[in-house]
């Protein structure tokens, strides 16, 4: 059976849980995605942008030094960190921004927590000549000044949100309010495989270029498919992007690594797949961190990109069905893996990606030298050096 079904459901997960007033806007996107994004002309244009502007294909790099150090399986890194903007996010923002343009929209709105998705959206909007406004909680604006400035440099307007906890979930509410009011000329660009159908499906579609390239590249280099594929999970877009191509390859173990934060026995983590319960958030039914009254909990991770109390519905389904395994890396483990990759390979990974690197190091040690692990290195870590310095007690 091919999922999602026509209601956007992955068995019990997914769907469209949105207020009535938003339905026409969501259906408009669904129509656009079905009618425009599948056309050859759209694909050609997007492929042009992905290669000439964003830097695809990204290399699949054999991390020889790290593999030698762990003395086990060969570790390959899918280098999404080398993309323009420094992460996989641009695969999705270029895809959706191009769709918005083809749908005749003049303006893109987005919400952002850490600012990474806001920056990736601002870049795509500039490339395609669209106006861009990004909702951001005042609390996050204060914490993420550098990204706010980047967005401004890129000609995007950051709209401060002062309601509720002044963070991501409040920014999402404001962006949705804006969308309802301005649906004629405005496209709402969601940053991960989350939200109401068709967003999880569409974002997976735009990110699945990662897995398609990986298949080709590993066949070229090794003449066979890998034994394990590992990706970090915030909302789940880089994970779905590399996993999707291999879902049918039952012999490959797919591992999603969530933020263990300060430990799963504390309240400070982002383990929605591991410890969450079923509920509704951001227009989808999925695994969430929430209390017994359905109030969304505050998540935590040292890496801003994994600090989200929900996760994409398809991953909830794939974990429930047993196809995808979940594991966790704590802040401390991620920091250690970060340092190891810096020193062994000369690559500074994003703290998000360092969670996946930790898991690869753990697993590789107990595997054979002929075994192969692919890690999705979702982003580069230049943005994280202040955080790492602080964790090491170093003043820059
Ligand atoms: C945003 C981000 C993530 C988390 O988002 P997903 O949708 O789970 O991929 C992971 N890594 C990097 C580098 C990011 O910027």
Short key terms for the protein model shown above:
396 residues, alpha/beta, six-stranded mixed beta sheet, four-stranded parallel beta sheet, binds pyridoxal-5'-phosphate
Helix/strand-derived category reads: alpha/beta
Based on Cα principal axes, name the global outline.
Answer: globular
Bound molecules: pyridoxal-5'-phosphate
What percent strand?
Answer: 15-25%
Distance between the termini: 54 Å
Largest sheet: 6 strands, mixed
Q: Got a strand count? A: 14
- Show unreliable segments: none
Helix fraction bin: 40-55%
Count every helix, treating DSSP H or I runs of 4 or more residues as helices: 16
Mean model confidence by pLDDT: 96
> How are the strands of the biggest sheet laid out side by side?
3-4-14-9-10-13
What is the H-and-E element order? Answer: EEHHEHEHEHEHHEHEHHEHEHEEHEHHEH
Calculate Rg over CA atoms: 20 Å
Description:
There is one protein chain. This protein is of the alpha/beta class and 396 residues long. The longest helix has 15 residues, at 40-54. It contains 16 helices and 14 strands. The strands form 4 sheets. A 6-stranded mixed beta sheet has the order 3-4-14-9-10-13, with helices on both faces. The chain has a 4-stranded parallel beta sheet with strand order 7-6-5-8, sandwiched between helices. Strand 9 (228-232), helix 11 (237-243) and strand 10 form a beta-alpha-beta unit. The chain has helices spanning 23-35, 40-54, 64-70, 89-102, 116-128, 138-143, 145-153, 168-181, 199-207, 209-222, 237-243, 272-275, 313-320, 331-345, 351-364, 385-391; strands at residues 9-10, 13-14, 60-62, 74-79, 107-111, 131-137, 157-161, 186-188, 228-232, 253-261, 277-281, 284-288, 324-330, 372-377. The N and C termini lie far apart (54 Å). Pyridoxal-5'-phosphate is lined by residues 87, 89, 116, 192, 232-239, 305-306, 350, 352-353, 378-379.
């Amino acid at each position: 059976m091919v999922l999602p079904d026509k209601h956007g459901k992955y068995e019990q997960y997914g769907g469209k849980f949105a207020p009535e007033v938003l339905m026409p806007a969501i259906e408009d996107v669904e129509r656009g995605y079905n009618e425009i994004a599948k056309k050859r002309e759209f694909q050609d244009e997007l492929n042009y942008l992905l290669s000439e502007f964003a830097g695809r294909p990204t290399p699949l790099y054999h991390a020889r030094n790290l593999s030698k150090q762990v003395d086990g399986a060969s570790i390959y890194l899918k280098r999404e960190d080398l993309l323009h903007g420094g992460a996989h996010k641009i695969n999705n923002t270029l895809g959706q921004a191009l769709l918005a343009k083809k749908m005749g929209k003049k303006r893109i709105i987005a919400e952002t927590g850490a600012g990474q998705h806001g920056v990736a959206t601002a870049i795509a909007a500039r490339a395609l000549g669209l106006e861009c406004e990004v909702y951001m909680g005042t609390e996050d604006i204060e914490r993420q000044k550098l990204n706010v400035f980047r967005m401004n440099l890129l000609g995007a307007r950051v709209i401060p949100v002062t309601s509720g906890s002044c963070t991501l979930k409040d920014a999402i509410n404001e962006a949705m309010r804006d969308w309802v009011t301005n649906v004629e000329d405005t496209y709402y660009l969601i940053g991960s495989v989350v939200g109401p159908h068709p967003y999880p499906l569409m974002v997976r579609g735009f990110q699945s270029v990662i897995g398609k390239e990986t298949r080709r590249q590993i066949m070229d280099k090794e003449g066979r498919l890998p034994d394990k594929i590992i990706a970090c999970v915030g909302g789940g877009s880089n994970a779905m992007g590399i996993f999707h191509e291999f879902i049918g390859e039952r012999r490959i173990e797919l591992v999603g690594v969530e933020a263990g934060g300060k430990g799963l026995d504390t309240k400070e983590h982002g383990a929605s797949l591991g410890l969450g319960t079923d509920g509704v958030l951001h227009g989808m039914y999925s695994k969430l961190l929430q209390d017994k009254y359905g109030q969304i909990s505050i998540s935590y991770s040292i890496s801003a990109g994994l600090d989200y109390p929900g996760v994409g519905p398809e991953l909830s389904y794939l974990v429930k069905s047993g196809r995808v395994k979940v594991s966790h890396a704590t802040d401390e483990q991620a920091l250690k893996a970060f340092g190891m990759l810096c020193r062994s390979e000369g690559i500074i990974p994003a703290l998000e990606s360092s969670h996946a690197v930790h898991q690869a190091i753990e697993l590789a040690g107990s595997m054979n030298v002929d075994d192969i692990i692919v890690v999705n290195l979702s982003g580069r870590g230049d943005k994280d050096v202040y955080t790492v310095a602080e964790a090491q007690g170093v003043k820059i």
